[in-house]
């Protein structure tokens, strides 16, 4: 709009260079109004207005700028951008306030209350109340995880600020095919972890350790190359405002865009400078245009799936055609990219106050409480087996360990069910149920925290789950052993 004040051409440019549901919706409205006198921007704004009220006003300002005198056009466009950023900031602040109560409720009913109920099971067993393993398993491995999934999906669907993460799949050239290797590594580490857990913790801990550490290791190995690509994409995006500032200043002074790109590559020492330096060399060597230099076959920006980078390249291609007047536009783009980066950082900081507790709970708090709870049940088992009172003995019978061989505070029953207590909740069964629930919490809470903080970036979600699962498993087993030594 600053280079060519035509709403129709600006809408067409945005729809063609954009990526995601907004660009698709804009392209649909642009095609629908191709035979009419309008650009489709008004109908597009009306479609998205229920989800983002500020878009209606911003679109009206853009349409006003098309017919405004040149001296007032820039002010209208600046206000359109300010309206969008202010609306985004307001929506974010409102969401942070609204999400605190649901997250607190999820934390209370999905973590605190279930773990507190688990802690009551040994006391209930000590009082002679029979406890069914099937009921506990259905509650902690079916009902509670299902409720957490529904609540997490509802919270993520209401997140108003989700900057589109880069789409990194297995077809990316920097992502090797590591499925077989990851599976083998997960199987080996899971087997070793199970053997160590059975030897130094308890027999029932072997499957929990194998599942948590094996799956976590395999997931980490599979996702790590994608995480490296994501880190490079973020590095290129961070330096994009500086690159646009350098190029915009040169173009405003009459330097050709191709030369300005090469100059930016020489002046910047970060990942962005490397991309622009290679693009400048390709343009000079192959005598190709800006878009081909960046995104052509073997281009330095081709393996960088970033909407911001591709949008900046599209505007650079326009600037190469327009010449010197595009310099100020590129400087405006640099300011806009910097504002977006600050807005995204502010969003993460505000949401981190909500998600920090979920992340810590997933990896540390829940496994710590769960391990101590199972150790408490084992302590009751030991007291009951030692014959210290009818209540304790009844508790041991209720846990199905009346005939178990107990040594050092860690039960060693082969099947976990004592004589005459078929269907009762034994300590080994309790340990496996609590361990599985701890792993479920590590997966769901980590995914929820990452999704709320950064949008549902599949690469980052999988990467953090790959770290959380082994951490939660180790914490759970260490807490069990440590609490057992104190009881």
UniProtKB/TrEMBL annotation:
TM region(s), chain numbering: 105-125, 131-157, 178-198, 204-223, 429-449, 461-486
Record keywords, A-Z: Membrane, Transmembrane, Transmembrane helix
Protein name: Type II secretion system protein
Organism, as annotated: Halorubrum aidingense JCM 13560
